[in-house]
Design brief:
By secondary structure, the chain is mainly alpha-helical. It has helices at residues 3-28, 34-63, 70-86, 94-114. 81% of the residues lie in helices and 0% in strands. It is elongated, with a radius of gyration of 15 Å.
């Protein structure tokens, strides 16, 4: 397994954790402490995104996989960070949240499929 694949799997795991958190919070409307709960979670996602982008952008620029570009990858990083924050608010609009979640999932799976 390459570094790109490993980090992509880690991103997929973050995406699933975000989805589960959103669904649980949507039902129960939990209260979270910003510094104890939210900040460490969102910072962990951002850290993984930054490491993932550092690996995947050079790969996509040299390998030129079909239907994957640098802008798409940057959008994945932006979307996953946005939903990581929104997951703590169970009142987030479901369709909007779900669309971003599925978009991230789809693109990450394409990267995993095409990565060396």
């Amino acid at each position: 397994m390459s570094n790109v694949q490993g980090k992509t799997i880690e991103m997929l795991q973050h995406n699933e954790a975000i989805w589960e958190l959103y669904l649980a919070n949507r039902e129960e409307q939990q209260e979270f402490d910003f510094y104890k709960d939210m900040k460490p979670f969102v910072d962990g996602v951002k850290e993984t995104c930054d490491a993932w982008l550092a690996l995947v952008i050079p790969w996509v620029n040299t390998a030129r996989p079909t239907y994957l570009g640098e802008a798409q990858l940057q959008q994945v990083a932006d979307n996953i960070q946005m939903i990581a924050v929104s997951a703590f608010n169970g009142k987030s609009f479901y369709k909007h949240f779900n669309d971003h979640y599925q978009s991230v999932d789809y693109t990450l799976k394409r990267v995993l499929e095409k990565a060396p």
